[in-house]
Specification:
The protein is of the alpha+beta class. The protein contains nine helices and twelve strands. It is elongated, with a radius of gyration of 31 Å. The structure holds dinuclear copper ion. Dinuclear copper ion binds next to loops. The site of dinuclear copper ion has 9 residues, from loops.
Length: 366
C-alpha cells in the first residue's frame, strides 16, 4: 500500500471519536509528576544509603564522596523521569488488539525540545564545573611533598623514592598526613594504579608519566589494585600500601637502604633513575620483575598459579631456564598456554641480571 493510499484509507475512517490520551484521566501529567517525585525521593534515599566505597583514608576522599553524592542526587530524578514517561507511555498508549495502523504523524514540539535540551545542558555544565573545581583543589601542589615513582609491569608494582634513595620497593610505605606526589609509569602495557581507600586512580600509560597527588590521613594497610585489564595475571596485581607514623616510615626507609647494600650514592637531581645501586640479587630480580605475579616459587614466597611452579621444574639445565625467560614460547610447560608470559625480558633485563636470575632459579629447584 502506498503512502497516499494509506492516507486515503485513514481519511475514509473519519476523524477519531475521542483523543484516547485524555479519556478517563483528569490530570495525567499531574499524576505522572506525583509518581516521579515520589520515586525520585525513594531512589535518592536508596542510593545515598548504599556504601559505595570503603572507609576513606586520604584528605581527597571527603570531597570526592560529596561529589559522588551530588551526582547521584542529580542522576536519580533524570533516570526516574525517563523511566516514568517510558513506562507510562507503554501502558497508556498501548495499541488495541487488531490495530495495525500507524500512529498519527508528529512533527515535533519545539517548546518541549528546547526544554529537554536546555535543562540537561545546564545540569551537565554545572556538574562539569563543580567536578573541575574539586579536581583542581585535590591536585594542587602541596608543601613538603614526598615523591614516589610507581612502576607497573606484568604483573607487579614497584615503588621508587628518589629523595630517600630507595629503588624497587615491593611495598608502598607512606607516612601519615604527608602529601604524596605519585609519578606513575609502566614498563609494558596499560595498568591502572588504584587504592580504593584513597579514592584516586590513574592509568599507567606506555610512554607517559601520569600523576596523582594525595595525602593519606589514616594509618592502616590498604590494597594497591591494578584497575586495568593487563593480561592473565591482572587479578594477582595487588600489593599493600602501609600508611604509618612518620618515625616508622623513616625506619623502614633506612632498612630499605641497608638491605640494598648501604644504599645507592647520589640520587640528587630529582628525576631519579640513572644511578647504579649494588647489583640486585636473583631473588630481588625475581620479585621486582613481576615473576611472583604469575609463578609459584617457595624460595621467594611466591604463590601465584598463572604459570608453572618455578621451584619444581624437574630435571632442567641452565640453558632451558635462560631460554624460557628470553623466549617463553619456545617450549611451553604442559598444561599452560603459550603467549601468556611477557616476551620482552630479553630487553628488560641486562646480561648480568639475566645471569643472576637464571642462577637463582637453578639454585631454587627442590
Ligand atoms: Cu596491571 Cu591489571
Amino acid at each position: 500500500m502506498s503512502e497516499r493510499e494509506r492516507v486515503q484509507v485513514d481519511e475514509a475512517k473519519g476523524p477519531p471519536e475521542e483523543d484516547p490520551r485524555i479519556a478517563g484521566e483528569k490530570h495525567p501529567v499531574a499524576r505522572m509528576i506525583g509518581i516521579g517525585v515520589l520515586a525520585s525521593l525513594v531512589g535518592i534515599a536508596i542510593t545515598l544509603s548504599i556504601d559505595w566505597f570503603p572507609e576513606p583514608a586520604s584528605t581527597a576522599a571527603g570531597k570526592i564522596d560529596t561529589l559522588y553524592d551530588v551526582l547521584l542526587i542529580c542522576s536519580v530524578p533524570v533516570f526516574v523521569l525517563v523511566m516514568t514517561i517510558a513506562i507510562y507511555s507503554v501502558v497508556r498508549f498501548r495499541a488495541k488488539p487488531g490495530d495495525t495502523g500507524d500512529g498519527a504523524p508528529i512533527h515535533g514540539n519545539t517548546r518541549l525540545e528546547i526544554i529537554w535540551v536546555t535543562i540537561p545542558f545546564i545540569m551537565v555544565t554545572a556538574l562539569a564545573i563543580y567536578g573541575w573545581v574539586v579536581l583542581d583543589d585535590i591536585e594542587a601542589k602541596q608543601q613538603d611533598e614526598l615523591v614516589v615513582q610507581v612502576t607497573g609491569q606484568q604483573f607487579t608494582w614497584t615503588f621508587d623514592y628518589p629523595s630517600q634513595r630507595i629503588k624497587d620497593a615491593k611495598e608502598l610505605y607512606l607516612p601519615v598526613d604527608r602529601p604524596v606526589d605519585f609519578r606513575i609509569k609502566t614498563k609494558d602495557v596499560l595498568h591502572s594504579f588504584w587504592v580504593p581507600q584513597f579514592r584516586l586512580k590513574s592509568d599507567a600509560v606506555p610512554g607517559l608519566t601520569t600523576k596523582i597527588r594525595l595525602t593519606p590521613d589514616r594509618e592502616g594497610n590498604f590494597e594497591v589494585v591494578c584497575a586495568e585489564l593487563c593480561g592473565l595475571g591482572h587479578s594477582t596485581m595487588r600489593q599493600f600500601v602501609r600508611v604509618v607514623p612518620d618515625g616508622a616510615f623513616e625506619k623502614w626507609a633506612a632498612d630499605q637502604r641497608q638491605a640494598a647494600g648501604g644504599g645507592a650514592t647520589g640520587g640528587g637531581g630529582g628525576g631519579g633513575g640513572g644511578e647504579e645501586a649494588a647489583a640486585p640479587s636473583g631473588e630481588e630480580l625475581f620479585t621486582s620483575n613481576g615473576c611472583a605475579g604469575c609463578h609459584t616459587l617457595e624460595a621467594a614466597g611466591a604463590t601465584a598459579k598463572v604459570g608453572p611452579d618455578l621451584g619444581k621444574l624437574g630435571d632442567v639445565d641452565e640453558a632451558f631456564i635462560r631460554e624460557s625467560i628470553v623466549d617463553p614460547n619456545a617450549e611451553v610447560t604442559k598444561g599452560f598456554d603459550s603467549g601468556i608470559m611477557p616476551q620482552d625480558f630479553n630487553t628488560k633485563l641486562s646480561k648480568e641480571e639475566l645471569d643472576a636470575l637464571v642462577k637463582y632459579l637453578l639454585e631454587s629447584q627442590q
